[in-house]
Each structure stands twice: as C-alpha cells, then as structure tokens.
C-alpha cells in the first residue's frame, strides 16, 4: 500500500527511500519549499485515509530544503534538519507536516506555535 501511494506521488527524477524502520526520505530536485510541503501533505493525507484495519494511520513528516547549491548544507545536516522537523511533528500531536527552515519550524494542519528543536548530532 505504501509503495502504491509513493508511486502515485513522486515524479520521474524524484527519489524515495526507506531510511530505517518506519522512516522514509525523499529527494526532490528542482522543487521549491511549497512543492515539497504539498507533496508531503498529499502523502500524509493519502496514507491517513488508506484502510489499515481498525486503527487510523498517522503520518508525521519533517521537511528540510535549500534553495541554491551555494546554500546547501551537507547531506547529513539536511537529513538532520528533516529529522528534527519530523520529531517536532510527532511532539506537536502527530499526523502533520512541519518544515525546518533553519531557525523556525512551521506546521501545516497545526494550531500550535512550534519551537526550534536542538540540532541532532549525526
């Protein structure tokens, strides 16, 4: 079921990969922040409405981005920011998408004021 949802959401040239356990990552070249957030929200909605037995499936998504090659952090830093945002989405009540823009976290589908979380130490 997850594979079908991902296949319908990602474009040719995008990369979806399992990072471990129940965590997945996406590389979305030539995609701005709005496009990445839209994709994450589409995936969240499709998975949360997919039949999963009696329990509803929740999807917490963290998004990190850069706008120019000069502004790109290392891959480890980019992954770390996405991971921080995902854990903030979980702390904020799950089943939401949050973007980590370096200083602030902005949540979709949330009425809370998220806080900056400490950087991870990969």
Q: Report the count of strand segments.
A: 5
* Secondary-structure-derived class: alpha+beta
Q: In order across it, which strands form the biggest sheet?
A: 3-4-5
Mean pLDDT: 76
Task: Present the secondary structure layout.
Elements: H1 2-9, E1 15-20, E2 23-27, H2 33-48, E3 61-64, H3 75-91, E4 97-100, E5 105-108
Parallel strand pairs: 3-4
Antiparallel strand pairs: 1-2, 4-5
Helix pairs in contact: 1-2
Describe the 3D structure.
This protein has a domain at 30-108: Alpha-Beta Plaits, CATH 3.30.70.270. It contains three helices and five strands, in the order αββαβαββ. It is an alpha+beta fold. It is globular and about 45 Å long. α1 packs antiparallel against α2 (33-48).
In brief:
This protein has 122 residues and is an alpha+beta fold. It contains three helices and five strands.
Question: Descriptors for this entry?
Answer:
122 residues; alpha+beta; two-stranded antiparallel ribbon
């Amino acid at each position: 079921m997850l594979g079908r949802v991902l296949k319908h959401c990602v474009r040719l040239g995008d990369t979806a990969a399992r990072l471990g356990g129940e965590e997945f990552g996406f590389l979305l070249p030539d995609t701005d922040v709005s496009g990445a957030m839209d994709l994450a929200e589409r995936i969240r909605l499709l998975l949360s409405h997919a039949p999963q037995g009696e329990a509803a499936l929740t999807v917490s998504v963290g998004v990190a981005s850069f706008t120019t090659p000069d502004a790109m952090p290392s891959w480890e830093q980019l992954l770390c920011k996405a991971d921080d945002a995902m854990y903030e989405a979980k702390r904020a009540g799950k089943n939401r998408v949050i973007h980590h823009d370096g200083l602030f976290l902005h949540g979709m589908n949330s009425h809370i004021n998220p806080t900056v979380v400490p950087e991870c130490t990969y």
